């Protein structure tokens, strides 16, 4: 990425307004998320997951990075390390929410992680052209979720894990083509799949950044409602994503 592209990030009047004048919590969440990515670049997996969990506790939009982060963890860590890192992340959530879990556990869990929330159509930016009746419908929500998952799968298969030969080889899942001693279908299914920790990928910084920023941007595209302050979620990744495209660079 050319060094001069970073200076372009300082010229956005809207981002200055979001960070300095409006004081949205999106700014804090994005800063913590970028800190987690920085730790990830140095392969500080556990500290990365702790910082990532703190960012999620500020605002749940950080979870848009979660599929890409999980894929990188499966590619670069052993299975036990992945489970331990996820345990650390869950522990942070439990620790930060402990006072509320003790007093109002049901209300805290149902409201803090309300994945079915419907935003007001009036404030939507990206799907303002969609009629309100469709915008608030369950079908529209499910359709966006399906598109989101499909795009993540296609990018993981065709882009992020292309050099490893697919998703399963990339994350160390190998298939045993030999005879299976189990007779039932489920036993055969689970007996054939096993972790191969000897094939851990040496992740490069550029690959990590590409996967994380692309995964987040896919989530942005498929979000049902984007408000103006949500621009901060992906603004800083735009120069890098544009640089990764085949479009020519003038300088």
Strand content: under 5%
Q: Please tally the helical runs, counting DSSP H or I stretches of 4 or more residues.
A: 14
Radius of gyration: 20 Å
Rounded to the nearest angstrom, the distance between the terminal CA atoms is 11 Å
Low-confidence spans: 174-199
Shape: globular
Structural class: mainly alpha
Average per-residue pLDDT, rounded, comes to 82
Could you state the order of secondary-structure elements as H and E? HHHHHHHHHHHEHEHH
Largest sheet: 2 strands, antiparallel
The total count of strands amounts to: 2
Helix proportion range: 55-70%
Strand order of the largest sheet: 1-2
Describe the protein's architecture and organization.
The protein has 251 residues and is an all-alpha fold. Helix content is 60%, strand content 2%. It has 14 helices and two strands; from the N terminus they run H-H-H-H-H-H-H-H-H-H-H-E-H-E-H-H. The chain has helices spanning 4-8, 13-22, 25-41, 45-58, 66-76, 79-96, 98-103, 105-112, 132-135, 138-160, 167-170, 185-192, 205-221, 238-243, and strands at 173-175, 193-195. Strands 1-2 form a two-stranded antiparallel ribbon. Helix 3 runs antiparallel to helix 4 and helix 10 (138-160) packs antiparallel against helix 13 (205-221). The longest helix is centred in the middle third of the chain and has 23 residues, at 138-160. Mean pLDDT is 82; it is low at 174-199.
């Amino acid at each position: 990425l050319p060094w001069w592209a970073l200076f372009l990030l300082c010229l956005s009047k809207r981002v200055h307004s979001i960070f300095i004048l409006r004081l949205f919590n999106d700014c804090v969440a994005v800063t913590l998320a970028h800190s987690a990515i920085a730790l990830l670049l140095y392969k500080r997996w556990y500290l990365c997951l702790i910082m990532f969990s703190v960012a999620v506790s500020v605002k749940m939009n950080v979870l848009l990075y979660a599929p890409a982060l999980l894929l990188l963890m499966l590619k670069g860590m052993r299975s036990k390390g992945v489970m331990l890192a996820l345990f650390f992340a869950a522990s942070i959530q439990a620790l930060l929410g402990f006072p509320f879990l003790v007093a109002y556990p049901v209300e805290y869990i149902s409201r803090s992680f309300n994945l079915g929330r419907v935003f007001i159509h009036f404030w939507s930016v990206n799907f303002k052209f969609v009629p309100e009746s469709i915008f608030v419908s369950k079908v529209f929500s499910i359709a966006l979720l399906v598109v989101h998952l499909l795009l993540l799968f296609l990018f993981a298969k065709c882009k992020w894990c292309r050099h490893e030969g697919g998703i399963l080889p990339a994350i160390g899942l190998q298939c045993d083509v030999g005879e299976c001693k189990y007779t039932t279908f489920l036993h055969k299914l689970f007996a054939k799949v096993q972790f191969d920790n000897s094939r851990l990928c040496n992740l490069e910084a550029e690959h990590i950044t590409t996967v994380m920023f692309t995964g987040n941007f896919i989530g942005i595209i498929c979000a049902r409602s984007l408000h103006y302050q949500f621009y901060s979620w992906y603004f800083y990744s735009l120069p890098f994503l544009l640089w990764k495209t085949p479009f020519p660079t003038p300088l």
